[in-house]
Structures are given as C-alpha cells and as structure tokens.
Amino acid sequence: MFNFEQLRYHLPRTKSFKAGIDMVIFAISGSLREGSSNTEILKKIKLHLPKSTEFILYDGLSRLPHFNPDMDKENVPAEVVELRGMIKRSNAMIISTPEYAHGIPGSLKNALDWMVSTTVLENKPMAVIFGSASEGNFAKDALVEVLKTVSARIMPETLVQISASQEKVDDFNLSDDLKNLLDNLLSQTVLKS
Ligand SMILES: Cc1cc2nc3c(=O)[nH]c(=O)nc-3n(C[C@H](O)[C@H](O)[C@H](O)COP(=O)(O)O)c2cc1C
pLDDT tens across 14-29, in order? Predict the structure, then answer.
C-alpha cells in the first residue's frame, strides 16, 4: 500500500495551496443524476484521503455551455475559465463516469472538448472509474482515447471498471480495486513532481 507520508515528503511546496493543504485532487462525475453511483463513489474516495488533501468535486458540469470553437477566442465563458483554472491548480484528477449508449456521457465529453485548446490536462495524473450497468468497455475505450489525445497521464493501473455500480455503491468500504487505484494515482503524482 502506498505510504501517504512518503508522498508528502516528495511533493513540491506550492504557494497557492491553502493552509494545511499539500495536494489538490480534482474530481468529475460523468453523471448528472441525483443519487448517481459515480458521484457517490467519488464522495467515498474523499473519505479515504488524508486531511491535508483537498478534494474538489466539480459541480459545474451541467452549467458548462456547449463547446463552440467560436466561443473559445477572446471572451471565453466564465464557467470554462473557472474549470480550466481548477484543473490547472490540481495535482491529480479522478473521473468517475457511466457508459451511455456505448459511449461517454455527452456532458463529460463537452467538458473535455473545452480543454483541448489548452494544456491543462497535459501530463495530469488521472484516474478513471467506469461505474456502469455493464463493465463499460465502450466508454473506457472512448475516454482513454480522448485522454491520450489531450496527453493526460493515464495507465492501466489508474483505470477501474465497476459493473452494476448502483448495486455496489451502498457498500461503504472502498473495494481493493479502488484503494489500489488511489495508491497508483498518488504515486503518479510523486513521479510528476
Ligand atoms: C440513457 C442511458 C443509456 C445507458 N447506456 C448504457 C450503456 O451503454 N452501457 C451500460 O453499461 N450502461 C448503460 N446505462 C446504464 C448506466 O450505466 C447506469 O444507469 C449507471 O448506474 C449510471 O450511472 P450513475 O449511477 O452514476 O448515474 C445507460 C443508462 C441510461 C440512462
């Protein structure tokens, strides 16, 4: 199991961190649904992180305008500027998403499309959880391809597929798979620094 104290020792000190915070993880749920299992999984992950890790669960996915390259010039929408800023100042990211119609949910793809003209996702340590009715293989292939295209740092060790996620989420304990995913994500963060 990864040693959080070891990790802390390696992390660069960044002035923009709040007092008592030495790492920021930015999380996005690909489901806008009230009671979403993917959102629940992310909330549970938060409970397993040290207090000195700031965990930001993005709540603006439904407010993002539809991606339009014409709007990505001088007057970039405030919601997009905010999202880019939050991703930029994070040390690592976690996405937890369902598969919809054998693909990535449109709102999540929309958010990623807004990042393409920037470098905010470049080399960003990224863990992805696919919480779906099935194993979510289609969503996995599609999202991995997008994340590779924006040069995010993903590895097989930072991807987890959870089938029947709605039935499993009530189990309060994180599965070993998710614990390993967190360890692997955090060790990637050390490599980055
Ligand atoms: C419109 C729609 C399409 C779906 N398509 C798929 C699919 O292609 N593959 C799959 O495994 N599950 C599919 N599902 C089921 C979702 O994976 C399942 O409801 C999941 O729990 C949703 O995530 P959430 O609990 O975070 O909202 C679909 C659900 C909806 C509403």
Answer: 446 778 888 999 999 9
Please tell me if the CB atom of residue 100 comes closer than 6 angstroms to any atom of ligand 1.
Answer: yes
Predicted TM-score (pTM) of this structure: 0.91
Closest ligand 1 atom number to CA of residue 40: 26
| pLDDT at residue 67 tops 70 | yes
Q: Which tokens hold the place of 133? A: 């009715």
Class of domain 32-192: alpha beta
Half-sphere exposure of 158 (CA within 13 A, CB side): 23
Residue 2 to residue 187: CA distance in whole angstroms = 7
Could you tell me if the CB of 133 is within 6 A of ligand 1?
A: yes
65 C-alpha to ligand 1 centroid (Å): 23
| Stated length of the chain | 193
Question: How remote is the CA of residue 87 from the centroid of ligand 1, in Å?
Answer: 26
Q: How far is the CA of 36 from the centre of ligand 1 (A)?
A: 10
Q: How far is CA 96 from CA 17, 42, 128, in A?
A: 25, 7, 6
Nearest to 45 by CA among 169, 189, 191: 169
